[in-house]
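Quick check before the chapter quiz. The format below is the same one you will see on the exam, so make sure you can read both the input and the output lines.
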Amino acid sequence: MTAKPMAAETPVTINYLEEFPNFLSVCTSWAFGQWGCQSYGSYEQTRREFEAATSSSMPLTLIAIENAVPAGMITLADRDFDGKSNLSPWLKSLYVHPFHRNRRIAALLIERLEQEALRLGCKSLYLVTEDARVLYEKSGWQAIDYVQTSFGPADLMTKVLPDTRLA
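Here is the expected output.
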């Protein structure tokens, strides 16, 4: 038995979702399947949120693409968690398709989102996670509170973004 030759891997690119409208349904399906259907949201509302995403303001959605296939996504939004409406902006909807996990795509998406937040004038970011605290801690995030979401107990996390003007 001979081994199959490995396909040459192309680098993952991180792009604005608005530049790839053909992936709008994919992102909507990922987000609704992962979170929306469990919190009594609707597919249509989820789709409207992604349709509103731009590169020049919030919401802003980035999509990871590998070999012309969507591999993951992440969104920068004004709001995400109703229990802390005084905090803004938020990292939300970080999702990497199971076929693309454990290859640093989540870290690439987080890093690029932080750069986009800085570009838009943000000084810090917030997120809520039920099960990915370690992933975010590896990217420099800190847990600041413990909150209850519709999915269960979760960590409220923040990251102060570096002041690039001093660098």
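If your answer matched, good. The radius of gyration is 16 Å.
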